[in-house]
Amino acid sequence: MTRMRIEGLLAAFPKLIGTGKQHTYVETENVRYVYQPMEALYLLLITNKQSNILEDLDTLRILSKLVPEYSYYFEESICKCAFDLILISLGHKENVTVAQVKQYCEMESHEEKLHRQMREDKIREAKDEMKRKANEIDKNKAIHVIYRL
């Protein structure tokens, strides 16, 4: 799904929900919005209409336990730095517990370590280059001072 499509679906959501409804889902022609109010915001799961609503509600329940834990100042934190937590398992639902999701979030992959190391190497190289150029500029200033004398 493209970013524009997702933004369009998100923009349409507030217009679809009504006040005082008992349901926690809304269906349109193509998608199903499964949601849960959380303080002044909504936790929202957008799925296709063929997905299993019970599995969607279970996923939403797990997310509702995780979001407050990772977002300390709930509304303020989410509005300032929105984040996505996407759990993909080749299109099949994988039964996971809240504890397993926490463990997965804490785990580091080899690719993450490699990326972090490459980033640190680039920063170190940039600092070395900066020092080298600063020394070169200082030498040029010293040479100009000598020529003036």
How many strand units? 3
Through-space gap between termini: 70 Å
Average pLDDT metric: 77
Overall helicity: 55-70%
Count of alpha and pi helical runs: 5
Within the largest sheet, what's the order of strands? 1-2-3
Q: Given the helix and strand composition, which structural class is it?
A: alpha+beta
C-alpha Rg (nearest Å)? 25 Å
Low-confidence stretches: 83-90
Shape: elongated
Major sheet details: 3 strands, antiparallel
Sketch the topology as an H/E string, one letter per element. HEEEHHHH
Residue share in β-strands: 5-15%
Topology:
Blueprint: H1 3-16, E1 25-27, E2 31-38, E3 41-48, H2 53-70, H3 74-80, H4 98-106, H5 110-148
Antiparallel strand pairs: 1-2, 2-3
What are the salient characteristics of this protein?
149 residues; alpha+beta; 5 helices; elongated
Describe this structure in words.
It is a single chain. With 149 residues, this protein is α+β, with helices and mostly antiparallel strands. The protein has helices at 3-16, 53-70, 74-80, 98-106, 110-148, and strands at 25-27, 31-38, 41-48. It is elongated and about 85 Å long.
Précis, in short:
This protein has 2 domains: 3-94, no CATH class; 108-149. Helix content is 58%, strand content 13%.
